[in-house]
Amino acid sequence: MDVQQFAQLMINGIAVGSIIALAAVGLTLTYGILRLSNFAHGDFLTLGAYLTLMTNSTGVNIWLSMILAALGTVGGMLLAEKLLWSKMRSIRATSTSLIIISIGLALFLRNGIIFIWGGKNQNYNLPVISALEFGTLRVPQNQLLVLGLAILAILSLHYLLQNTKVGKAMRAVADDLDLARVSGINVDRVILWTWVIAGTFTSLGGSMYGLITAVRPNMGWFLILPLFASVILGGIGNPYGAIAAAFIIGIAQEVSTPWLGSQYKQGVALLIMILVLLIRPKGLFKGTI
């Protein structure tokens, strides 16, 4: 592998890492605050991409389509909270039960998407934009847009967590839910905001993934392993750690393709996750919001 190819793969890895980072934030927040390992998370990402596709295909601007898709995805997550997760918390369901239910929800979402939109690959209704050239490197403009949007979203998350009452309440609930409730924090409101943030970031990740690849029913399922690997590597419940880990995994996956081939690059995320669990089970960073 020459220097040019390595640089090109690094660029691709940063773009993929941006998408993984956005979705991993939602996944780590739902675990850190709700103690829920949500295997349906990747399919909510797919739902965001298809809702963007649906609105964009009617002539709606792609950016407005992303916003509307985020609202729809948040609505889907809140519906799942109302019908499933709140009831499971009330009966103190075990973590194993929650995992099984989330897998069932994932299958329901994926097959629902196939029923409504079909199983073939689809693309947004966008004009073809030529790639930017930097010397011998060719950088698709959509990849730059994805990175820029991811940075903006991450900065917004940082502000929310560190400088708002909601963010401080979320950190308190993540540390100790019962103590937070006794202290007067509205836990139900925190749970609501958790789903709103998770749904928004996950939907944006799916929408932006559709910018650099085809929209297909299993796109989120194929990302679920890198998502969990990012959450574990970054420290469970730590959104900043998940973001950093997502870029590590995204770059590692893309750089490994000359040796492993594109069909095996998902195995890189699995290998990283296994090594972290063996060497440092708590992750590279402290697992806290």
Compact summary:
The chain is mainly α.
Could you describe the 3D structure shown?
By secondary structure, the chain is an all-alpha fold. It has a domain at 9-119 and 138-218. The chain is 75% helix and 2% strand. The protein has helices spanning 3-34, 41-56, 62-90, 95-117, 141-163, 165-175, 177-182, 187-212, 219-234, 239-255, 257-260, 266-279; strands at residues 132-134, 137-139. Strands 1-2 form a two-stranded antiparallel ribbon. Helix 1 runs parallel beside helix 5 (141-163), helix 1 packs antiparallel against helix 8 and helix 3 packs across helix 8 (187-212). The radius of gyration is 19 Å and the shape is globular. The model has no long low-confidence stretch (mean pLDDT 87).
Discrete helix count: 12
The end-to-end distance, rounded to whole angstroms, is 39 Å
Read across the widest sheet, the strand sequence of neighbours is 1-2
Largest sheet: 2 strands, antiparallel
Pick out its properties.
12 helices, 289 residues, mainly alpha, globular
Task: Explain the layout of strands and helices.
Blueprint: H1 3-34, H2 41-56, H3 62-90, H4 95-117, E1 132-134, E2 137-139, H5 141-163, H6 165-175, H7 177-182, H8 187-212, H9 219-234, H10 239-255, H11 257-260, H12 266-279
Antiparallel strand pairs: 1-2
Helix pairs in contact: 1-5, 1-8, 1-9, 1-10, 2-3, 2-4, 2-8, 2-9, 3-8, 5-6, 5-8, 6-8, 9-10, 9-12, 10-12
